[in-house]
Sequence to fold (126 residues):
Amino acid sequence: MRLATQESTYLIATAPGIPSIQHPDAPAMVVTLSWLNMLEGYMWKRIRGAGLAYGASIRADMRRGQVLFSVYRSPNGFAAWNEARKIVSEIVSGEVPPPFVLGCPLYSYFTGTPLVYFFLGVFGWG
Fold:
């Protein structure tokens, strides 16, 4: 939604995530989110590169047991959120070729983990 009195919008969406750094899925979460948030990376090109927002990120707060998606300085926060939703849909469905970490596809590490449930919860699926 555009706001007539604001040039930029901001958005933060949260969902339950991994509750501890000791959780077996914590390393996969950290690596996956690092890949998604990388400068000139997949999400960067599709959101910032397309002019949908100055910045967007997905991060885990394992002390609070939350995962957060945020959009920073967007002319249309909903459009940036919707593009992130498409990105996540492509990742979860396997349409995006997985990056490799130590010779293994990165997505194989988190299929069925809380990261997928975060995606489903934050972006309104399920």
User: Anything to note?
Assistant: The beta strands are 9-16, 55-61, 66-74, 100-101, 104-105. The first strand starts at residue 9 and ends at 16. The chain has five helices and five strands. Helices lie at 26-37, 42-47, 77-93, 107-110, 114-122.
